[in-house]
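Input:
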Amino acid sequence: MSDLYVTGTSMPDVQSAIEAKLQADPSIDAVVTLGAPYADTAVKAREGAGSKAEIDTFDLNAKVAAGLADDSLGFAVDQQPYLQGYQAVDLLWLYKYNGDVLGGGKPVLTGPQIITEDQADELAEYTERGTR
Amino acid sequence: MSTLAPDERLLRVSPLRKLLGRPELGSVVGALAVFVFFAFAADSFLRASSLSTVLYASSTIGIMAVPVALLMIGGEFDLSAGVMVTSSALVSSMFSYQMTANVWVGVGVSLLVTLAIGAFNGFMLTRTKLPSFIITLGTFLMLTGMNLGFTKLIDGTVSTKTIADMEGFPAARDVFASTLTVGDVNFKITILWWFGLVAVASWILLRTRAGNWIFAVGGNQDAARAVGVPVAKTKIGLYMGVAFGAWISGQHLLFSYDVVQSGEGVGNELIYIIAAVIGGCLITGGYGSAAGSAVGALIFGMTSKGIVFAEWNPDWFKFFLGAMLLLATLLNAWVRKRAEATT
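Output:
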């Protein structure tokens, strides 16, 4: 496994850097991007480099959901940031209002969820509105 | 009896020296050195497909480096150039989407809006007489805020909605973001845009009156005004040139990825300036060339991608990048100095 740093504020740079890496080492069989916006760019880089590597990503957006559905992406690790924010406030309110404690006082996991082609279609609606 | 030394202006200078003394040709030596270096350091660098990747990376910098170089020859900076590309893409995308219009309408509106931003930069500069560094820093920050603010306001998220299924998209993608296959190698169309811009900018600089004005306002603004050069018009024109480049880059961004991330572009303004300076533009103005900016962009593209091709430890990427650029530019400066020496 090896790292590749890209200039995240410049998509063409991201694309050409991933393309260069895939061309330099044809044995690479998977690319994992650390942010949803870069997944589709990695797919383009894969095309440009003529590579067969699987592209996977952290995080989710509408484009990633579409990529999972059409099989250009393998899986997405969704840490459910909306839940991370919303659930904490909800738990706090329940505690203040009702003295409720969820999860027996232990950490309540809000994710992550591994998303593949199977769940992609039902997610389209939520990713479009930006809550997933 | 001592003989007088002949006037230096009458000295015969060998054509090779003259050639090397041109602003861009000093940097060509640096580019060649970087090329030869990576040809040896990275096995995969010399493949046609790899060179096409390098050319693509260089072209996306080069398209903006050309007008930025002209602006620098004219003695000014534009710190808003990086985010202006994103603004241009956002305007085009959101206008088409919200109006459900043919994407070409958005492209046209985007051209007008982007040119207006450029004109605003130039107008503010010539009216207030503040340094361009301050004026365009203001524009840079305002555009960064507007990119995010408007995108969140209109689309609810930090990126735009896809316009890939809209009318006119395929044609616009052909113009701004297509891939041309020569033999069995794919070349991005941005390379053609880049070469085209270099040719047009070189013609303007070297063959037109406006070109003389650009050198004059960058060399000595007051003297230029005294001999009747329209200083304000020239500078506003130069800023609109940068805006035009931002429009091309922005449309490439949009039609290449069909969604636009509102936070993009920050930091690129420096890379455009770097390309222009490596290519022989003086930071103080009055000297430089359009072709030089292209060579500068090529050096930057070759170095940043060459390090990946060479598979050096990525943790040290920025160090290698800095060291290589420094060495290439030192070589440029050394060649130019040797070439300009008359004896």
